[in-house]
Amino acid sequence: MKYEVRQLLNFFNKSGDIIYNELDEVLQNYAVCYPQVLIDILTLLVNVPEPHKRNRAVSDLWQRLQETGIVDSRLMEHICQDKRIWRVYPLVIKYLVGTQLMFPLTITNQVDQVGTFCLPCRLPKIYLEQFEFNYSEHISDVFYFDFGEVLQEFIFLRLLAKCCQEKEFDWVKIYYNCAQFRASETCLFQINSKTISSGSVLLYDRNLIKLLVSKEIPSQSVNILQKLHTFIEEIILQTFNQDYFHDQHVCGPVCEICSSLNGTMCLVNLASLSNDVSALKEYRVDQYHTVYREGKFRFTCSRPIT
Q1: Is residue 15 part of a domain?
Q2: Is 259 in contact with 206 (CB distance < 8 Å)?
């Protein structure tokens, strides 16, 4: 019977009558029967009302959301009360968290979802020059995720949510376009969204997510890269139309030799790197590049320079 019910829910999800996600362990237990209500709530959160339109009882919570991107559960309760769905407001929060549209910061009551949450699309932006590691000698490795002409913005915001919910990571600073996390007591890493202009109307801009790992424990670089790659694969599978990602995105370091020959930034694609990175000593990525993993990550390029 359970299988038949899920078939029915998937059918109505495809028709647009409801919202149902069978692939997610949390969301597969819920179905949104009135999608417009959820859309109205999201629209309200993203487009914070002007001060004169805010209820005085929660005006300070609206202001906090506008300035910091932090949503208080009391504000969600108030919004759901206005929408006459007060009884299910904890489920609304769970759904938004399950889709990585929000992620929890502090929760004091798991049942009623009492606490504070971050709404990534409302986070303030920062100039990347002000945020990157202060000196280049502090950086061990730099990797890129290249999505080609597909905008990386919404992938990046969901990636923030997944990193913040990962038990092995502790967030240090978070902005709309950049964030720093601690993978261990001595290892920091940073991610930011980056676009390289093609400089031509005939070519598309390249949309990237940049990963910088500090040098204190260089052996962690590939582990962090693989963890983020897994997160991005999950985000694409769960959230986006697969037709937009018919060509698998590329992730890896820049090869200076190939870049100089091709006149553009070329990446050594590590997307298919062995999962057992602890045992990796040598790995042939393609006909030119070999990756070595003996402590610090490194690679070689045998492409002839003509």
Answers
A1: no
A2: no
pLDDT 10s digits, 47-95: 999 999 999 999 999 999 999 999 999 999 999 999 888 888 898 998 8
Write down which residue in 66, 95, 119 finishes a domain.
Answer: 119
* 17, 276, 306 from 287: Cα distances, Å: 49, 22, 17
Residue where a domain terminates, one of 89, 119, 149? 119
The range of the structural domain enclosing residue 97 comes to 34-119
Rounded Cα–Cα distance for residues 150 and 243 (Å): 11
Give the C-alpha separation, 8 to 163, whole Å.
33
First to last CA, the chain: 66
Q: From 251, 233, 230, select the one nearest 242 (Cα to Cα).
A: 233
Residues above pLDDT 90, as percent of the chain: 33
pTM of the model: 0.81
Same-domain check for residues 70 and 180: no
Question: What whole-number distance in Å separates Cα of residue 183 and Cα of residue 79?
Answer: 36
Task: Supply 35's token pair.
Answer: 């999608």
User: What pLDDT does 277 receive?
Assistant: 59
**245 and 198 share one domain:** yes
Phi, psi of 101 (to 5 degrees): -80, -25
Whether residue 143 is predicted with pLDDT greater than 90 in this model: the reply is yes
Residue 40's Cβ-count burial label (10 Å; 0-12, 13-18, 19+) is middle
**What mean pLDDT comes out for the span 234-258?**
77
Computed over every residue of the chain, the mean pLDDT equals 84
Structural domain count of the chain: 2
- Residue 189 near residue 178, CB atoms below 8 Å: no
Query: 187-196 and 289-294: which strand pairing?
Result: unpaired
Burial of residue 254 (number of CB atoms within 10 Å: 0-12, 13-18, 19+): middle
